[in-house]
Specification:
This protein is an alpha/beta fold. It is 20% helix and 36% strand. It has five helices and 14 strands. The strands form two sheets. Strands 2, 3, 4, 5, 6, 7, 8 and 9 form an eight-stranded mixed beta sheet that branches. Strands 1-13-10-12-11-14 form a six-stranded mixed beta sheet.
Length: 221
């Protein structure tokens, strides 16, 4: 046998160690609490568009906190107008302000507005997406791009990510049990030190799986 070849027993030992580490992952550690929520249509606004829609120097007014720390639903709402003149009023703005404006809709919302091409994207990934006209109490903004259907995703902190054995950008599965049980296969992983374990899906997805009545939820790799 060539001395350059790896000894078989050494390879077997490495394989056994990896297998044991995988099988023991998370044992002795309580499973983190999973919260699955419906993310209804909403808008994120940038400073420049806020000035046009609500007036120079205006700020978002806190209405209620969201599950992720530092995020909130604002009292401010706008009207979005689609390419065929159809509109949705009372579109809620979520804070804090972002570097660029974007609108997150369910597929049925987009169809109603006459937007036939709406890509599934993670928040912030708006390059090449559809635009729309946004009407506020003080002015009108024409978004050249930024209308998306938000991809189903899970927020988690590094400790929770270690429990599941996942990294940022990975995809997981979410099983929703019940009479209308569904398994979602492409749940995008987003990791941040301030996050709490929380899956966001749009209203179409929530209605399809009967989320409002579901009690049996499982997130897995």
């Amino acid at each position: 046998m060539s001395t350059s070849m790896i000894d078989r027993s050494a390879v077997e030992q490495i394989v056994r160690q990896i297998a044991l580490e995988y099988l023991n992952r998370g044992k002795g550690t309580a499973a983190p609490e999973l919260k699955v929520q419906t993310s209804s249509r909403h808008m994120h606004v940038c400073r420049a568009d806020m000035d046009i829609l609500f007036g120079p120097g205006s700020e978002l007014t806190f209405d209620r906190p969201l599950y992720q720390e530092g995020n909130f639903a604002a009292k401010e709402t706008v009207t979005i107008v689609g390419p065929r003149g159809r509109l949705i009023s009372n579109l809620r703005i979520l804070g804090p302000m972002r570097k660029q404006s974007q609108v997150e809709l369910a597929f049925t919302d987009a169809i109603m507005l006459g937007i036939t091409e709406i890509p599934v994207r993670l928040s912030g990934d708006i390059e090449g997406t559809a635009g729309a006209i946004i009407i506020g109490p003080k002015g009108v903004v024409e978004l050249k791009q930024g209308v998306i259907r938000a991809a189903i995703h899970v927020h988690m902190n590094p400790t929770e990510a270690a429990y599941f054995g996942v990294s940022k950008g990975d995809r997981m599965k979410l099983r929703v049990g019940g009479e209308a049980g569904v398994t979602f296969n492409n749940v995008h992983v987003r990791i941040d030190p301030t996050s709490r374990l929380n899956v966001h899906m749009d209203t179409d997805e929530a209605n399809a799986c009967g989320l409002h009545r579901a009690k049996d939820l499982e997130l897995f790799k």
